[in-house]
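>> received
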Amino acid sequence: MTAIPYRITLIVALLLPTLSLADNPVRDYPAQKIAAHTYVIHGPLGQPSVTNQGFMNNPGFIVTDDSVVVIDPGASLEAGRMVLRQIAKVTKLPVSYVFDTHVHGDHWLGNQAITEAYPNAQLLAHPDMIKLAQQGEAEVWVNRVNQLTNNYTASTKAVIPTIPVVDDQTLTIGGVHFHIYAPANAHSKTDIMVEVVEDATLFTGDNVLNNYIARMDDGTFAGSIAACDRAIALHDKHYVPGHGQTGNVAVVKRYRDYLATLLAAVKEQVALGKADFEMKDTVAAKLKKFRNLPGFTEQLGKQISLAVLEVEAQN
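>> returned
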């Protein structure tokens, strides 16, 4: 047998991870029925990666009398197709509307799959989300997810929402009421939370996370705390975070506690004249009950720096 040159073998080996992922759909994640009309597909925690195939958020779908409403269909064409496979296990009704909770593409680039399957589906989002996506943020996220997944999502194209929704707006779809809350200056400054009124269920987007610490680069701590307060005041039965398991209001209160504790600790240190790098150990000590959460170590330093800038801007 003729030996295969080492260099060719190495090149093939390097290409295999990309080829094998690109040839396979996103693995199925089951849809969990959490209320009479509402289902959630809980993604794994973490950033988009080769391992999770770029799927790591919590898409939801609501089965109304005549159609299906989707919330945050995932980070890619293939993630959106996986969501559609789970919907098909529950109902044959078409998808009529999609709510995208904010501009971060890990939540909405799955729009492509929805519109391919249902060209008449209406895509809704905060007006500033639509504006930022059109101005280039969409392509930033397409490229970011593709790089993080080693080109697994190379076939994904940004299908940007076209219909703006605003704070305190209610839409009635197939006999189900969807109430929109648009907290200002929260997680991304382009956020909506979607309440399924009949099911007493609130989809918070990344204004609330459960057992996970994610980036705060685009929002504010004070605005995020206010968003949590607004969610708590609704007294809903179910809260669907942007990442992590669905739960009751305790999920929101715990995340609010993290944000408020960090912001208060940073304010104290700024008042003492400390720089961000000087206060990290002190702030970390105040947050010790959160230190084992995924993302805590990776995000803490950056979040302290962002909180310092926020505090200084208010002084």
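>> The radius of gyration is 21 Å.
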